[in-house]
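Q: I'm writing up a methods section and want to include an example of the input and output format. Could you take the sequence below and give the corresponding predicted structure tokens, formatted cleanly so I can copy it straight into the document?
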Amino acid sequence: MWLQGCASDYPSRRLALDVRALHGNPYDGHTLEEAIRKAESNSDKNIEVVFVDKGYRGQTLEGKTIFISGQRKGLTQ
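A: Here is the clean output for your methods example:
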């Protein structure tokens, strides 16, 4: 699992917010909430927008806007 983000004062810089091994090959959608929670804890920032791959289709989290790769512009989940 790899979560990256960018600092608001340096939007072109990428920062690793959460990196860890997930044993047992868990379904991507079941790991998103915990990964975001850990990334928020590591960065002391509230994450509002998340960009994910297609393995996270159908996932919703209250207070988060989730964009899935390949998603048409203007559509949100």
